[in-house]
Amino acid sequence: MPTQSPYLLFSDGKGNIFEDTSLYASGRSGWDALPVPTEDWIELPYGGSLYELPGRFGIGIDVKTGEMRLCKKGNAVAAFIPPAHTGLYLAAYETEKDAPTLPLFCYTAAGWLNDKFYVPALRIEEDVRQECSGYDSDKIKTGAGFLLEAYPNNRLAKHLMENCCMTYKCPAARNFALGRWECPVPSSPACNANCIGCISFQPQEETIPPAQDRLTFRPTPEEIVEFTVPHLQTAPFPIVSFGQGCEGEPLLMWETIRDSIIEMRKHTNRGSININTNGSKPDAVKALCEAGLNSIRVSTNSARKHFYEAYYRPNNYQFEDIIESLKTVSSHGGWASINYFVFPGMTDNVEEYECLRKLIRETGLNMIQWRNFNIDPDWYLGRIGATDTGEFLGIKQLMGLVREEFPKVKFGYFNPPMERMKGNYEADFAH
Ligand code: SF4
Q1: Domain 135-421 is of which CATH architecture?
Q2: Closest ligand 1 atom, residue 299 Cα
Q3: Interval between CA 200 and ligand 1 midpoint (Å)
């Protein structure tokens, strides 16, 4: 924790960043700029990045008068904080009329003090599986080459190694190449939702690109089983995870996934089989649980039906279906998590909190993965019609209230391995 509030950052638009010592950095919650408590600032964790925001001027607090004012010396600056950390405040800035929509990253507040960058955030997950320092690119290259040689006719192994691992640098695909932890298994070229901030597909009329391209083929159970069984049998803390950023909705491929799970479990009972999903098809989830699915992670921007549906724009399903999917896994003894897109001012809104309590109670939820929402804040709030974001608690306070009322609900950032779900969850898993 710094001894005082860090100074505001601005950029010259050419990639150079400077501090303005006449202004303290502020934060944003909903539509409001506000001071950030000194104790909420931490050093920008290793692996974090800084972005200059074109057409935007940072809002700071005058060090002499305490007044809020704009920094017109250059563009506003925000931080992309690395996985396992949750941002507590967004970057505060004023957006010019013709400013471009920002790409699909998170924009956390950032400041500078005593030669260090600071962000208002906290580490929410001890698991180090996506720690930037843990990726050795030579070993990854060797591992990818080995898998491509081992599975020469496997389209999915080829996609995972050539696209996901070596091109997109996907943390899960790189862990698979290193023969450890969570192995990603994308399977669906199509989706039954139309998320405004979809990371694998953006309509032509939108000005921002998707983060990665969507899978273009439907893998067979044989292709899936060929590499997942050895991974489950040999990897430390193994997880096989359906539902990845480079595909649509995996539940649209439930029969293929069901048959794959049945075949995997014929060969091994080791590890966990998980699905990351929009939770749209509870009947399909039931069939997967009966086949041996161990855990589910349902993504959501909100526990409020109207904001969920305004963002997901679902085809032939509704908010109640995702609740049903979570309940289904709980009732089969599986582990149910939500992938909760954290947006300060919306996630910690008082009404949202009440809906979250209801969701936890109704579903028997095991875990909340507090994920930073990778989206342009103004664009998001505008598109879902959140003109007034209302009263908010503060992200830290929200977490405290949930922890107190639901002590069994785990907080984190990643899908836990079987050893954690069934064993001593708090045990040192920094592996
Ligand atoms: S559910 Fe996933 S794949 Fe489907 S539109 Fe939303 S982000 Fe995209």
Answers
A1: Alpha-Beta Barrel (3.20)
A2: 1
A3: 7
Q: Give the span between the Cα atoms of 30 and 268, in whole angstroms.
A: 48
| Ligand 1 atom closest to the CA of 247, numbered from 1 | 3
Can you tell me the distance from the alpha carbon of 385 to that of 310, in angstroms, rounded to the nearest whole number? 8
3-state secondary structure (DSSP) of residue 61: strand
Q: If you average pLDDT over every residue of the chain, what do you get? A: 96
Amino acid at 321: D
Annotated domain spans of the chain: 7-123, 135-421
Interval 47-68: pLDDT, tens:
999 999 999 999 999 999 999 9
Mutate to test the pocket of ligand 1, among 192, 246, 275, 278 (most ligand atoms within 8 A of CB): 278
Check pocket membership of 210 for ligand 1, CB cut-off 6 A. Answer: no
- Strand runs (DSSP E) across 107-146, as ranges? 111-113, 116-123
Average of per-residue pLDDT across 65-85: 98
Quote the Cα angle for 93-94-97, to 5°.
140
pLDDT exceeds 50 at position 185: yes
Structure tokens belonging to residue 45: 């964790």
Ligand 1 centre from 418 Cα, in Å? Answer: 27
Task: With beta carbons less than 8 A apart as the criterion, state whether 401 and 110 touch.
Answer: no
The tens digit of pLDDT for each residue in 243-296 reads: 999 999 999 999 999 999 999 999 999 999 999 999 999 999 999 999 999 999
Q: Which long-range contacts (CB under 8 A, 24 or more apart) does 159-165 make?
A: 159/186, 159/215, 159/246, 160/184, 160/186, 163/212, 163/213, 163/246, 164/212, 164/244, 164/246, 165/140
Which pLDDT belongs to residue 215? 95
The 10s digit of each residue's pLDDT in 123-132 is: 999 999 999 9
Q: Is the CB of 278 under 6 A from ligand 1?
A: yes
- Asked if residue 191 has its Cβ within 6 Å of ligand 1, the reply is yes
Residue 102 has pLDDT above 70, yes or no: yes
C-alpha 197 – ligand 1 centre gap (Å): 8
Predicted TM-score (pTM) above 0.90 = yes
Q: Is 71 in the pocket of ligand 1 (CB under 6 A)?
A: no
Q: Whose CA is nearest to atom 2 of ligand 1?
A: 248
Q: What average pLDDT does range 199-216 have in this prediction?
A: 92
> Is 200 touching ligand 1 by the criterion CB < 6 Å?
yes
Determine whether the shortest distance from the Cβ of 198 to ligand 1 is under 6 A. yes
